[in-house]
Every structure is written in structure tokens, then in C-alpha cells.
Amino acid sequence: MGVIVAEGLAITVLVLTGFRQAVLNAIPMDLKRAIGIGIGLFIAFIGLVNAGVVIKGTPVVTIAPNFRTWPLLIFGVGLVVTSALVARRIKGALLLGIIFTTAFATIVNEAKHLKIFTDGSAKIPHSWPGPNFHLLGHFSFDF
């Protein structure tokens, strides 16, 4: 927690002195765009791995040999619906596509009793412990 507080204080000092804006102005626009594109491709790659389009654990990018699985069907339908919404320039198209794909995946999970997407489901634990306040007020820079 001390690192988070120190980071917040450092950012506050950088903003108040104007140094943050100077650093942002020093970075060329092409580099800013390249960073954004790289982050977007990384997130897209994670999505492709989770959908089963790309097989994880191989040193070379490998496309899944079997396209007859439910996760790939859900991915494909969600991609087509989201692309159609974006092409029609509907406001909130990405959010609507995410909501539709989530609802479709939930319906498939319940109808087929597949439970494919169990990693991201939130469940309330059986025993819910109360908050632990024993470190409240303790601040240290020790590493």
C-alpha cells in the first residue's frame, strides 16, 4: 500500500509542476499511436487465445484446427454482431456487442450445461470474512 501512496504523491507532484505535460509533449504522435496499437493488438491476442482461435503454449502462433466448438461459435457470432453494429455507426456499438455476446454465452452455457466460461464467473464464498483493519494507518517505505 505504501508504494501506491508514493506513486500517487509522485504523480501529483508531476502534474502540479507541469512536468507530466512536458513529457507527453516530448513523445512524438507516431510513437503514441504505435503504443496504443500495440496494446490493442496484445488485448486482441489475449481474446483470441481465450476464444480458442489461437492455441496457447506454442512458441509459434497456431490457429485452432477444430472450429466446431461452442467458444468459437460464440466468438464468431459476437464478432459478426459487433462488426455489424459498428458498421451501422450505432452509438455504443462495442458495449452493445459485449452485452449481446455475454448474454449469448450465458444462454449457451445454461442450455447446454457446458460451463465453458467458468474462469471469470464471480461467486460469493461460503464464509464471508469481515474487513481486516489491523494495518490501517501503518505506512512504511521499507523494502
What does this 3D model show about the protein?
This protein is an all-alpha fold and 143 residues long. The protein has helices at residues 2-17, 19-26, 29-51, 70-87, 93-112; strands at 54-55, 62-63. It has a domain at 66-122. It is built from 5 helices and 2 strands, in the order H-H-H-E-E-H-H. Strand 1 and strand 2 form a beta hairpin. The protein starts with a helix and ends in a 31-residue tail after the last helix. The mean pLDDT is 84.
Based on the model shown, name its key terms.
143 residues, single chain, two-stranded antiparallel sheet
Mean pLDDT: 84
Q: What is the quaternary state of this protein?
A: single chain
Sum up the overall morphology in one term.
Answer: extended
Q: Helices and strands, in N-to-C order?
A: HHHEEHH
Helix content: 55-70%
Radius of gyration: 22 Å
Flag low-confidence runs: none
Cα end-to-end separation: 12 Å
Largest sheet, spatial ordering of strands: 1-2
Number of strands: 2
The portion of residues forming beta strands comes to under 5%
- Secondary structure class reads mainly alpha
Nutshell version of this structure?
With 143 residues, this protein is mostly helical.
SSE map:
Elements: H1 2-17, H2 19-26, H3 29-51, E1 54-55, E2 62-63, H4 70-87, H5 93-112
Antiparallel strand pairs: 1-2
Helix pairs in contact: 4-5
